[in-house]
Amino acid sequence: MNVKKTAVWVFALWIVLQSVMVALCWGAPQYSDSAAYVRCAYACFEQGTWYPTPAQIAGESYVFNPGYINYLIVALHIFGSLNPLPIVNVLLNAAVAYFVFRIASALFDRRTGYVSVVLYCALISNLLSPVVILSDLLYLFLLTAALVLVRDRWWWLLAAGALLGLSNYVRPVSLIFLVAVVLYMLARRFGVWSYVSLACGMAVMTGGIMMFNRTVNGTYMYAASTGGCNLIMGANDDADGSYTSAPFEEGGIGYIAPGSQMDTAQKDAYWKKQAVGWIKEHPGRYISLMPVKLVRLWLGDDYFRNVFYPDLGKGKGAAGRMAEIVLLSLTYYMVLLLALAGLVRLGWRGLLSVKGLPLLPVLACCAMHMLMYGGMRYHYPFMPCVVMYAAYAAGLLLERRRQRTDRPAAVLPLKNDSDV
């Protein structure tokens, strides 16, 4: 089996299928967080300003990912509409697949890189993500581009640091990956000035964004203010490990009466305070929910399908809903099983090398959502790490199969007349 040719053909077919999905879903409505992003972007665009405005800080429940919404505003200035954005998303997704190939090839080998492309393309979320207006795809593009630029040259690291800072503006989880980047630099014995370049790139980008926000709304706001909201959803009397609006309803511990003068920062602080208070009063209940949150985080791969078709699954009961998740997640489960096999095959010695670095963000993701709440969407930025370990295991299986195929058959000696 020629792994390179297979990867190229799968990648090409995947691009075609994404294009078909974009055509079928052209102009389709957005739901949930996607709808909120679109609403905020259009509001700012029509006012000729950027996100968040002082009015949005004062009146909204929280500030969404400002980097992504400002990206949408840029798209509105260019296209006049967000309808063409899925076409851009297909290009971003293709770039991410290529960057995953580069990263996997650098940490493991070229064969693992090619198999990573095949597995990345096989995931349902990576087929449907271009048609949904969410921060995940842009974030992954910026993050993986930054990781590819981590080389022992100061100008590359300056650019990598800037992209890490920009990705954190789009979705504030890049510091999780920064730890792995620094450890990689230590393992490869980068020079001292390399660390300075990386830090300068991040500092300049972050500082520039903060100064930009200062001119827009008078604050140095850099990231979303959803921490308190996410924490209290996983720490209340009605918590079940996943999303719930119960704490924000009247009588809930996070209820804020309409007309409240609290701005987004004050609401965030209030919800954190209420959540911490509940955790102190119910430590056993909070700890018991952690495994449930972890299961919900990795339960399936159908998040983007749910966003676009919210009515599917309704009225089918828990069993019917679970059957849908399983059906749409078959390749996802295969990738998870292969990733576990890859981790086992690497063993402690392998995981203590650079091959173990992609595991760190995955573990951090698990820890973060065990503290807050679990949702299938939130494992998405960490799937390239999982895909690399799955590709490593699949590559070993392919190599073993090749060796068996190439092994010459045993030749039996011919019998002599004397043997008869």
List keywords for this structure.
mainly alpha, 19 helices, globular, disordered C terminus
Short recap of the structure:
By secondary structure, the chain is an all-alpha fold. It is built from 19 helices and no strands.
Question: How would you sum up this structure, described in words?
Answer:
- By secondary structure, the protein is an all-alpha fold.
- It is built from 19 helices and no strands.
- It has helices at residues 3-24, 32-47, 54-59, 66-79, 85-107, 110-122, 124-128, 135-148, 154-170, 174-187, 192-217, 227-233, 264-281, 283-297, 303-308, 317-328, 330-351, 359-371, 383-406.
- Helix 5 packs parallel to helix 8.
- 41% of the residues are buried.
